[in-house]
Write a structure and sequence with these properties.
There is one protein chain. This protein is an all-alpha fold. 37% of the residues lie in helices and 0% in strands. It has a domain at 9-66: Orthogonal Bundle (434 Repressor (Amino-terminal Domain)), CATH 1.10.260.
């Protein structure tokens, strides 16, 4: 079963903490803007157990007064291997072919 990702939960908690708001304070401000949110829903969002809808994100941007990009983690600036290096192909070690044995000469 596929779970929806929540990448903004920790940022919501950080912004709320920086302003000195409790979860109840933030929920009250969101409800004043007609955004349906309870403290349980907010706690689930902050602990990344529940996804955030686009409408909830829109209201959070309005409450905190920050651009939408603040909520999302920065894009990694490097992905892959550095240039100039060749990629090695790793396979299982091949066994050497067996050498033919010399026939034994029967001695009497």
């Amino acid at each position: 079963m596929r779970r929806d990702a929540n990448v903004i939960g920790r940022t919501v908690a950080r912004l709320r903490y920086q302003r000195g708001w409790t979860q109840e304070d933030l929920v009250g401000k969101l409800q004043m803007l007609n955004c349906y949110m309870t403290r349980d829903i907010l706690a689930s969002i902050e602990t990344q157990r529940a996804p955030v809808t686009d409408k909830q994100l829109e209201y959070l941007v309005a409450i905190f007064g920050v651009p939408v990009g603040v909520f999302f983690p920065p894009k990694p600036h490097f992905a892959g291997r550095p240039l100039g290096f060749t990629q090695e192909i790793r396979t299982r070690r091949r066994r050497r072919p067996k050498r033919p044995r010399k026939p034994r000469v029967a001695t009497a």
